[in-house]
């Protein structure tokens, strides 16, 4: 009887361990924590990007009205403030991209991993896009004349637009995955 009892308890223990392992098969909780941290980075980055682009719009009209060295220096000082905001935004997007990418490498359902990978690539691209946007105020600081500024500014704008399209395409890919697989995602 004791052998039967030991065998029965061993089977129950094996079943319990198997059930516990099955329940913890996916690292969803860890992924969700990384996603929450990434979302916080995105919010901060969006706030800084909004501040920087608002200042950039005013900056663009001021550049065309520079008449003397004093006006140039004043506008260059404003350019440095814009750059500071955009650098913080760029770094926030890059941080979010790293967190999404890290989460995508965890043991998760395939579609969730695919979504996280797309979001990681999107945020990395948004960081690159914001870095390209820095090129416009930086062009004023680095340029020796108006023509040089216009060329550098136009190059930065072209690069920004190209990167924005890539980021928007990655966002659309991630949203498509999300919409087709809503049940896999944490509802907040």
Please state the average pLDDT score. 87
Helix content: over 70%
Largest sheet, strands/sense/barrel: none
Spatial extent as radius of gyration = 25 Å
Q: Order of SSEs, N→C?
A: HHHHH
Q: Extract low-pLDDT stretches.
A: 6-21
How many individual helices? Answer: 5
User: Count of DSSP E strands?
Assistant: 0
Describe the model.
It is a single chain. The protein is an all-alpha fold and 188 residues long. It has one domain. The chain is 86% helix and 0% strand. It has helices at 2-23, 28-63, 69-104, 110-142, 146-180. α2 packs antiparallel against α3, α3 (69-104) packs antiparallel against α4 and α4 (110-142) runs antiparallel to α5. It is elongated and about 65 Å long. The model is unreliable at 6-21 (pLDDT under 50).
Which terms summarize this structure?
single chain, 188 residues, mainly alpha
In short:
Helix content is 86%, strand content 0%. The chain has 188 residues and is mostly helical.
Topology overview:
Elements: H1 2-23, H2 28-63, H3 69-104, H4 110-142, H5 146-180
Helix pairs in contact: 2-3, 2-4, 3-4, 4-5
